[in-house]
Specification:
7 helices; LRR_receptor-like_kinase; Ser-Thr/Tyr_kinase_cat_dom; Serine-threonine/tyrosine-protein kinase catalytic domain-containing protein
């Protein structure tokens, strides 16, 4: 297994070889962070104990704008506050999905429910602001 592929593998799979749907949830959380930051867990800036997950976690809630891709965030456009809240919620979800311990992670049903809730909050806030 190459180092690049192992960055998406849950800790329990890497250490004990245990496979479960919670391993997929872990990978999904890492992928969410990668999508919104446009940083790969294998980027040179992440070494030793400093990881993509830690970088995102340390940014919440006060300096999230420093880790999110500026093309996604673009706070100068309409609905910037709503967008920031939405992205913060997604990053919190990503952190919950990628918790170190599998029992702390959500299951995919709960992940879907959380994403649906985030979507509804965004749509509702846009309707109110019209």
């Amino acid at each position: 297994m190459s180092h690049i592929k192992s960055i998406y593998i849950s800790p329990e799979y890497g250490t004990e070889g245990l496979v479960s749907t919670r391993c997929d949830v872990y990978s999904y959380g890492i992928m969410l962070m990668e999508t919104f930051t446009r940083k790969r867990p294998s980027d040179e800036m992440f070494a030793g104990d400093f990881s993509l997950r830690r970088w995102v976690k340390d940014s919440l809630p006060d300096v999230l704008h420093r880790v999110v891709d500026p093309n996604i965030l673009n706070l100068e456009k309409k609905h910037s506050i709503e967008k920031l809240h939405c992205i913060a919620s997604i990053m919190e979800l990503a952190l919950n999905c990628s918790a170190e311990s599998s029992w702390e992670r959500l299951n995919m049903t709960d992940v879907l429910a959380a994403l649906t809730k985030i979507k509804l909050q965004v749509l509702t806030s846009r309707e109110v602001s019209r």
